[in-house]
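Weekly modeling sync, notes
Attendees: S.R. (lead), two postdocs, one rotation student

Agenda item 3: backlog of single-chain predictions. S.R. asked that every request posted to the team notebook include the full sequence so nobody has to chase files. The rotation student volunteered to paste the first one in as an example of the format we agreed on. Action items at the bottom.

Example entry:
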Amino acid sequence: MSLRLDTSLLTSFTLARKDSHQSDLTDTSFTSFSTSSDSLSSYSTSPSSCDVSCVSTPIDEDFKCLSLPTSNQDALIPLFCTPCGVDLPRESPETPHVECLEPKMLPITKGINEWIKARTADWDRPLKVVGLLATTDEGCAIYSNQTRKACEKVNVGFEIRTLEHDFEIVKSAIEQVNHDYEVDGLIIYFPLFGPDKDNELRALISPRIDIEAISPSSLAKVYTSTPGTLAEMGIGFPSHSVFPCTPLAVVRVLQSLKTMYDHLRPSGQRLSGKVISVINRSETVGRPLAAMLANEGALIFSIDIDSIHIYHRHSAADHYCVTPLPKTVETNDCLRLSDVVVSAVPSAKYKVDTAVLKTGCVCVNIATDNNFAEDVKDRAGVWVQRVGSVTIANLISNAVILRLASECA
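Predicted structure, as returned to the notebook:
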């Protein structure tokens, strides 16, 4: 059964955009940090920083109307409807059988690697990346070894420096690499000393070598720009930004899907009309990813442990704004509407409720532990379980971009 809404009264609603010139540290609406970049964060915001306002213009025409179960329609419909009638399902239909594609990451990684080789082929000094390993965590050791192998494939020098698990020692090592102009990129294997201390270390990284794009100055650029395609990458020095590697890997995956990413549109509009849920709002993964996708035209549900926010723009000329949703809106309400679901929850116990997924949606897991049950392939049209190889390729391509930018400065 469906409900047909009279949306004639919705013409006055849209999202309020905070003045984009007020903050250059983080995104255009919030300046508070989550408690941990490595966990599903506890996140609080100021109610006055972005809200729902009555204005005379509707939201982007790409979003005609979205719906939720009747109990939550009053809360959400004013946020993203233009005046049009629409049939609203009261509940999710039974799951039909769909053909689920599981795209390989190799073609994406290969394309990035070929770009790296082409850009660095005639360099007198080979590209050099340094990794600081100050933990005995097995996952970090595996990641550093994978990075070494990836660097070898594209003739990039990689040096791992093993340090004592001591804050001052790591701090000193960062400062040393910052001033070594034979080094083009720095990787620090977090987590190390807890959220506050780790954020302090991230802030020390020179933008010149921040290939993970995790320092405050690097993240500030992420919130106001969009990553181009592989063909566009590295154009526009010295202003071209680098992007956090795992979020960028998700973007590269979406760019590889012709039904998802419209390459014919100009930058900033290539995901217009798409609805995407990003589960986890960590400072170095979930939140930058939501911003990157919103700045490319998508409507984003940013879902965290205690809140759900919408990231969206008024038009292609604007940067995104952020609007907290009422507590009555639940994760599953958002998943029912989403063309793409990306989950990054660092817990083996957390699982996305696959029963409510939109039939044929794209599901991407970027958590260490799989956040989706096996039956995700019964519902999803595209299932991506790992993006690790693309993440590492992005690290190296970021180093190339920063080297080129430095030489053009």
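Discussion: group reviewed the output briefly. Residues 223 and 291 are 6 Å apart (CA to CA).
Action items: rotation student to repeat for the remaining queue; S.R. to check formatting next week.
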